[in-house]
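User: Hand in any protein.

Assistant:
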Amino acid sequence: MPKKIKVLFYHRSMEMGGVERVILDLFQNLPQDLFDITLLLNTFQGELRHEIPPHIRVITVEKGREDMSSNKLIKFAQLVKRAIILWYYRKNPKALFRKFIKTDFDIEVASGYTDFDAVLNSPMKARKIAWFHSDVSYDPDQKRVMSRITSLKKFDWVIFGSLQTRDVIKELYHIEYPNSCVIYNAIKIDEARKKSLDFPVSFDQRPVFSSMGRLHIRKNYHTLMKVHKRLLDDGFEHSIAVIGGGSEMENLKTQAKDLDVEKSYLLLDSQINPYPYIKNSDYFIFPSESESYPLTIGEVMGLEIPVISTNVGGIPEMIEHNYDGLLVEPNEESIYQGMKLFLTDKTLVEKIKTSAKVSVTKFDNDEIYRQVTSVFEKQYQLKQ
């Protein structure tokens, strides 16, 4: 039997997010006869931690919040201890290798920019691959941006999640990556359709705009709430259901209370199966200030829910404006006008729904798995 290519993926945790779903999808679909895959997690934490396929070996440095004490003081001490241990291994990659990894791999993969240093500082003589999903044009911290795009140069190969993700670096910083390619994230439309029927969902106030994303400031849910309030004040009745958890949850709850929209701007937190909520909504709104190639857009189109999305990152590579979706700018006025159009122009909405039924065929997952397989095989050959 031919030797399998040993691949080590690095990642921080398995909290619900686009990168985590991409990793899981690759684990499920890359050929098992070619690859022996291991996942190194900083923490065994997150809603998706039990979704890792059984054939994937998992190495965990520290336990997750879910496995810590319910006592606040003890949990705080555990979190401090965990932070110190993770800091130590970041500074001492050889110690990390000796204690947890212990054997060499052919390929090391940084699943996102948070894993760049861990892979680049690894003592292994493996081929090093970076997966980059971020739109650097949104980030005002130029020192951070330069650190990330400079680190990319040190990898043997870089996979960009969209054309825009790579092109914007060339446009803004005049930096190119000859050892790179663009591979879109696979979108599991059939799986989303099946899961959307798992349980019934009803909303009290219609029409409903659903949305899904991590509650981070750049996801722009604070702006969406302001738009929601404006539309209500202008007589356009509707509600918004936001699926996702994150650091902005408490801020958004406070904002909803201040604007008196707690009953119509629904913060549903993370859901293992979000698709019934989306399927039973009338529209989908994606207000983010920056993205690469979000899986959610393709899934929602597959569920035949008309989409309004901000015109950022790789989203224009997914949506054709006024054909299978509506593109708006990531500001209050543009989002307001887009949502108002959906609420008042039923002909446009029906046209977008009809077009999306056809256009979802552009998402070819088998080709994506072939492309990833080809990259890994070529890097392995170069290592020999």
User: Anything to note?
Assistant: The mean pLDDT is 95. The chain has two domains: 5-186+364-383, 189-362. The radius of gyration is 22 Å.
